[in-house]
Amino acid sequence: MDPQAPKKRGRKPKPKEDKKDEPKMKESTTTKRTAHQHAVDDKYTHWKSLVPVLYDWLANHNLVWPSLSCRWGPQLEQATYKNRQRLYLSEQTDGSVPNTLVIANCEVVKPRVAAAEHISQFNEEARSPFVKKHKTIIHPGEVNRIRELPQNTKIVATHTDSPDVLIWDVEAQPNRHAVLGATNSRPDLILTGHQDNAEFALAMCPTEPYVLSGGKDKSVVLWSIQDHITSSATDPATAKSAGSSGSIIKQSPKPGDGNDKAADGPSVGPRGIYNGHEDTVEDVTFCPSSVGDDSCLILWDARVGTSPVIKVEKAHDADLHCVDWNPLDDNLILTGSADNSVRMFDRRNLTSNGVGSPINKFEGHSAAVLCVQWSPDKSSVFGSSAEDGLLNIWDYEKVGKKVEQGPRTTNYPAGLFFQHAGHRDKVVDFHWNASDPWTVVSVSDDCDSTGGGGTLQIWRMSDLIYRPQDEVLAELEKFKAHESRIIANSSSISAAWILNLRQSLCILCLKLQNDCIQGALTWVV
Length: 525
What we know:
Blueprint: H1 23-54, E1 55-63, E2 71-78, E3 82-91, E4 100-109, H2 116-119, E5 131-138, E6 145-149, E7 152-159, E8 165-169, E9 189-191, E10 202-204, E11 210-214, E12 219-224, H3 231-234, H4 236-242, E13 267-268, E14 272-275, E15 281-285, E16 289-292, E17 297-299, E18 310-312, E19 320-325, E20 332-337, E21 342-346, E22 351-352, E23 355-356, E24 360-362, E25 369-374, E26 381-386, E27 391-395, E28 416-420, E29 427-432, E30 439-445, H5 447-450, E31 454-461, H6 463-466, H7 469-478, H8 480-483, H9 495-510, H10 517-520
Parallel strand pairs: 9-13
Antiparallel strand pairs: 1-31, 2-3, 3-4, 4-5, 6-7, 7-8, 8-9, 10-11, 11-12, 12-14, 15-16, 16-17, 17-18, 19-20, 20-21, 21-24, 22-23, 25-26, 26-27, 27-28, 29-30, 30-31
Helix pairs in contact: 1-9, 7-9
């Protein structure tokens, strides 16, 4: 391993112990680590006790190996109480067995179906009955990032520790048994063009079969897989007759049997290579834009050339890790950084005196932000996850709004209205479910806290937290007789009470960061 390589955002190798270290230093380090773990465990215990109040549904799935990425695939089946949907994960192993790309089936319970007393009764060391492994692909190297093609979510791209981007038709790929010595599965397509490893920065175009990648060579590379899409797949009549099992990727003349090396697969070169960064490109997104370790946010227009259209210097005070473009308002861009903050930019006014000028700064993390993503359902809502083990849900429309003050109002970051605290280590990735609004999958790398494995959680917050106030009021009025047993001296449920209830729900999870949880619970009694 190159000692000068930047620190990976996923699983870190365990540090080698120096036998010459003084025992006192070892004892001090162990004591600090133990104290930190006790604090994490205490917060987690508090969070778990609040699950029936804060969540409509939650599934906890223990992972034997860490997964650095998680993505929703296509919805397969709709039923009365739950839907079945594909879920893409990875297994980042220690070398005793191969690294894998995992295609799982997930049973997504519909809103207001799960019983409150059931969703909190899970074993952290067990696998969830809602998540079942469907297929395993033996991946050439670690899977650092997974992204699905919006036009056909059965097609996914993966990043590993190499210059290439690998394209997989997950339905056409054979199921493999991951054992030591097994040969790699063969990608359906290899995208070449980087001059150095490209590990994390990966995006798929929402409207065309374009792939975007960034890497250590400080460049952003654009491909189109259109040249490798069969003519039958582009013909609606032929595609319909081909059925769902047909691959949309042109196959190599040499049939893949799962035993070929990745280098033997078909490849395609780039449509464009875009320069402008002075360090590793950490993330990219379409329209497109990119962010890098040089703290810059850069925008290109692929229609007019490879030179940057806009370069935002000092977009953050440290390395930028992630970026996302609002799918419902293309003027808004999110960035997350090692400075622990999330910033929102308006592309119509990105800079002031040559320096990045965000329209909002969101500061609710205590460690580096690893992932940001806009909600596909509401244009003002987004999530951010970080190395502090938290996944924050924000609504920028709440920033600056004068909210009616109640007796339980507390100070918390502007715009933050929910905090998912179910992970006990860094949350390396999460993904909103476009087929089931407000349902999120998130994954944490637990090697630092437990010495191995990871945690996958699928969750949906209570709709009392995010639904419009008038809707909640109207619904609860229908159950006025029942609610009156809880609310003394009240002939009707007032808007002020609803506001206080909604604030209390939000504050319950936010107060996990201090010692006032019991005070926040008083409204339940």
